Amino acid sequence: MQKMKKQFQRPSRRLSRKAWIIIGIIVALLLAGGVTAYSVWQSQQATQSNTSDDGIEERPVEENTELTPEQEKARKQAGDTLDPTVTADAATAQANGNTEEAVAIYDKAIEQNTDEDEKVALYIRKAELLVSEGDVQGAIDAAKAAEAIAGPVVPVASMLAALYEVQGELVEAARYYRLAAEAMGEEDELGTRQYYIDSADRLEEQL
Known about the structure:
By secondary structure, this protein is mainly α. It is built from ten helices and no strands. α4 (84-95) packs antiparallel against α5 (99-112), α6 packs antiparallel against α7 and α9 runs antiparallel to α10 (192-205).
């Protein structure tokens, strides 16, 4: 008997305008994650290019131009090092109405990738794809798979916070917003950490 191929079932529940706004904000912040990962490195380079007393610009010091392991890890988890053909192929498949193929592209990339930080980024991209199709629970499952690998790092915690907020699970949403803020440490050049804290406060006031 020929094995039947499992078809992607588009959820019947349509996301509200508010839900799309929440998801849109988080995706925008995730896309800015690469900038945050570079921020300290870039500021170090900028301060190294100083002007001497006689007005001659000094050359940057070369020793501090490499990313730290922590910055490189954040860069990978933000998706900055992913093979662009993976996301492009998935986007093309989705645009052609073949969500099942788009999901399969991410699943194959996750299976074949040996870098755990890049796997995290791929799971988050898969979550973004699924929620754009209205499959919030599927997106949560993908984000939870990423959490199983890396814990509540910023891309994972912020995505789960937004998804749980869309689901109306405000306790979990607030918890993950706070985890996202904690994962950022004191770095908040873009105001992202404060956004997570304010979001957690806002949700807890509704409980």
